[in-house]
Structure formats: C-alpha cells, structure tokens
C-alpha cells in the first residue's frame, strides 16, 4: 500500500496466464481472486456479504461483529464503481511486467496485523501493483520495504520484509488500516470515494478503541482520515484542527476518557524515501513515540 508512482512498464499487451501460481504457495488462482478460494490471509468466504453502495458500506461496517468479519467484508466491497473497475482491470490486463505471471488479488486491501492491537497505522490507499497484487497492506512495493523494516526494528513485525501473503509475517501490538481500501488511478481517490470508504475505518477504530494507545498517520490524508474518524466516534479532538507535519502530534480523548496519541509521519512513498525527505532515522523516531 502506498502512493506508488505510475508504473513505467505495465504489461498491458502480453496474454496473462489465468489461473496463475501464487508466488509462495504455488496454488492456482484466478485474477481477481474469488473470495474463500485459499489465498493466504484471505479473510472472506463465498458467503461474505458484499457492499455495493455507500449505504451498504455503512450498514455492513456497523454490523461487523469483530475484526475478522470486518476484514472479510472490506475485502469483497464493491461500493465505488471507478475503483472496482480500476483494481480489476489492473489485475486482469494491467499487471506490471515483472509480475505478469502472478495472480493478482484485485480486491480491496483488508487491514493487516494484530487484532488486539494497541497501535494503529493509518495509510492512504493500496498501490495497483502492491497490495492490489498481494492482498496485504504495504506488501510488494518499496514503501512496504521501508515500513516493515522500521516496524521490525521497533519490535512490532516478526520479520523486516513483507514480500507476499503467505510469507509468515506477523505483527504484534500493531495493526495497519487505510483511508481508502482500493487502489485508485494515479493514487488519487476522489473526495466521494474517501467518504464512501470511511465507515470501514470508523469501525476499525471502534473495535480497537478499548485498547488503543496511539495512531501513526502516514501523510496528510491519513492524518485527516484519523481525525475525521475520531470526530465521528465522538472523541475529543483539539480545535482548531491540528496541522499535519512529520512529527506532529495531537492528543485525542475517547468517549470513555482514554487518551490516544496521534502522531504524523511523512508517507513512506518512494517520492519521500528516494529523495531523502523521509529517512530511516526520522521514521524510527516517530514509531518510537507510539
Ligand atoms: S474504496 Fe472502500 S468503499 Fe470503495 S469499493 Fe474499495 S473498499 Fe469499498
């Protein structure tokens, strides 16, 4: 998941194998991957209810009775026609040349990590050839290399890399969520798409609330999404709205009086990490505050 730069070498004309072999398990999958067919980490089944409108997202998010069911419902959502069309077209005929022989998840990226997390990381949206290929947040692109290496250094991740679903990675005490769960064209979800997807994040926050200690917002969009979700939950949020910046911090208070620290970080996108705008030391420093 990331603000991934446009793919310089999409494999749009070569015929795609379908089904194709999962890179870790060797299992055969069609693209997009049908729910409940054995993809590692797939939280859904063929019976998972599918949201096809903004109103259904509200309803299905509210009625999800736990993290597992919430993840399942997110992973089959079809409420944003433009994003459904984009994520599936990339999966079928727009695969990056380097991955052209792999199956593509082609579905929304469910949250990833410890269901009992005390810390949430709030990202932007999946990358077309990252999460949209692997089915796991921040997995399969360079932004993930940065994030998981830092989480491993901080003791949250069991290994420093996240290459593919099924690679054994686990997170302890931390869960990764997102503002928008489907890969958007040019990494730019519309305002309407962000609003349609927000109830999934709201429910993630609600389920985490009894244990939540802190949140790390990656980029200004993640910062705004976290503040918006907190406000909708009825938490006390500072006024005027706290400004995003790397290292910015805001203290939020839940309805039950629990204090939750929101910390801002520049996004781990290549445009920040390649240019040195975000360094490993800077990322380690904000993660240490969680
Ligand atoms: S962006 Fe969110 S609401 Fe829209 S289709 Fe994807 S998961 Fe559903």
TrEMBL record:
Q: Look up keyword 4Fe-4S and say if it applies.
A: yes
Full protein name: Type-5 uracil-DNA glycosylase
Asked if the record carries the keyword Hydrolase, the reply is yes
Family that this chain belongs to: Belongs to the uracil-DNA glycosylase (UDG) superfamily. Type 5 (UDGb) family.
Q: Which PANTHER family match?
A: TYPE-5 URACIL-DNA GLYCOSYLASE
Q: Which InterPro entries match?
A: UDG_Type-4/5 (IPR051536), UdgB-like (IPR044147), Uracil-DNA_glycosylase-like (IPR005122), Uracil-DNA_glycosylase-like_sf (IPR036895)
Q: Which residues form the Uracil-DNA glycosylase-like domain?
A: 110-287
* Keywords associated with the record: 4Fe-4S, DNA damage, DNA repair, Hydrolase, Iron, Iron-sulfur, Metal-binding
The domain of life is Bacteria
According to the record, the residues making up region (Disordered) are 1-48
Q: Which residues cross the membrane?
A: none
């Amino acid at each position: 998941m990331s603000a991934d730069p446009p793919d310089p070498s999409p494999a749009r004309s070569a015929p795609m194998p379908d089904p194709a072999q999962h890179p870790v398990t060797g299992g055969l999958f069609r693209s997009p991957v049908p729910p409940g067919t054995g993809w590692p980490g797939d939280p859904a089944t063929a019976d998972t209810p599918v949201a096809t409108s903004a109103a259904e997202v509200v309803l299905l998010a509210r009625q999800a009775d736990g993290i597992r069911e919430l993840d399942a419902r997110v992973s089959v959502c079809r409420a944003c026609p433009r994003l459904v069309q984009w994520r599936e077209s990339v999966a079928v005929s727009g695969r990056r040349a380097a991955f052209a022989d792999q199956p593509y998840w082609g579905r929304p990226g469910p949250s990833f990590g410890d269901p009992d997390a005390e810390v949430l990381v709030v990202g932007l949206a999946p990358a077309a050839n990252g999460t949209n290929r692997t089915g796991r947040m921040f997995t399969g692109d360079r932004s993930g290399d940065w994030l998981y290496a830092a989480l491993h250094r901080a003791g949250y991740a069991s290994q420093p890399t996240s290459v593919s679903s099924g690679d054994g990675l686990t997170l302890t005490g931390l869960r990764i969520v997102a503002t928008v769960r489907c890969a958007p064209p040019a990494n730019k979800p519309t305002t309407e798409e962000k609003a349609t997807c927000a109830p999934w994040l709201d429910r993630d926050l609600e389920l985490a609330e009894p244990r939540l200690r802190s949140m790390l917002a990656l980029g200004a969009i993640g910062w705004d999404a976290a503040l918006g979700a907190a406000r909708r939950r009825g938490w006390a949020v500072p006024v005027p709205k706290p400004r995003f910046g790397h290292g910015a911090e805001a203290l939020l208070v839940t309805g039950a009086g629990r204090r939750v620290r929101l910390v801002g970080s520049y996004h781990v996108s290549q445009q920040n990490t390649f240019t040195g705008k975000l360094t490993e030391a800077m990322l380690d420093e904000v993660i240490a505050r969680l």
